[in-house]
Amino acid sequence: MPKPKWIPPAAEASPTADIRIHATIRVRIPARKRKEARRILGSMIERIRLEEGCLGCRLYLDALEEGAMLLHEIWADEKSLERHLRSEEFRTVLLVVEMASKPPDIRFDRLTKTGGIEAISVGLERDEIFPGGKQPV
Predict the structure, then answer these.
(1) Residue 61: enclosing H or E segment and its boundaries?
(2) 56 has which bridge partners?
(3) Which of 5, 24, 7 is nearest to 77 (CA)?
(4) Roughly how many angstroms between the first and final C-alpha of the chain, as a whole number?
(5) d(C-alpha 14, C-alpha 3), whole Å
(6) pLDDT digits (tens, 9 = 90+) for 88-120
(7) What is the pLDDT at residue 46?
(8) Residue 41: closest CA among 10, 67, 6
(9) In angstroms, rounded to a whole number, what is the distance separating the alpha carbons of residues 37 and 28?
(10) What's the DSSP call for residue 132?
C-alpha cells in the first residue's frame, strides 16, 4: 500500500510560512543518453514525491527542443528543500545533470502568492478584450 502523501502543517506565525519553493532543473540530453536519463528521472519522481515537504514533482519533455527535459519540484518550505538537496534522490538527479550536453538551467523560485484563471481578467476591461465591445459570435 503506498505511503500517504505528506501534507504540510497549517501555516504558523512565521513570516515565511506561506512561501513555496519551485525548483526547476532543465537539461539538454544527447540522443545516446536520453533513454537512460528518462529512466533515471522517471524512477526518482515517485520517491521525491514521498519526501516530507514535497508538494509536487513532475518531469516534462520539451516538444520543440529535442532532448530538453525539465524536472519541476514544489517544496513546502526551505527546510524541506534543504533536506531534499542533501538526499540520495537528489544525488541521483545530479547524475542526469552530468549527462547534459550543455550547462543546465537550475532555478529556485520562492513564491508567496499564486493565482488561477481569475488572474487573467484582473485589470482587463471588456473593451480591452473585445475592442469596441464587440464579442465574436
Answers:
(1) strand 54-61
(2) 74
(3) 7
(4) 52
(5) 28
(6) 999 999 999 999 999 999 999 999 887 777 777
(7) 92
(8) 67
(9) 10
(10) G
Q: Which CATH class is domain 20-113?
A: alpha beta
Residue 106 CA to residue 115 CA, distance in Å, equals: 24
Grid coordinates standing for 128?
Answer: 480591452
For residues 53 and 8, the answer to whether their CB atoms sit within 8 Å is: yes
Q: What are phi and psi of 107, to 5 degrees?
A: -135, 145
| Domain ranges, ordered by start, for the chain | 20-113
Q: How far is CA 74 from CA 92, 101, 116, in A?
A: 18, 26, 17
- CB-based contact 102:109 (threshold 8 Å): no
Distance of alpha carbon 102 from alpha carbon 112, whole angstroms:
32
Whole-angstrom distance, CA of residue 28 vs CA of residue 23? 17
Cell numbers 536519463: residue:
37
Report how far residue 63's alpha carbon sits from residue 16's, in angstroms, rounded to the nearest whole number. 36
Average pLDDT over residues 61-71: 95
Question: Cβ distance 24 to 106 under 8 Å?
Answer: yes
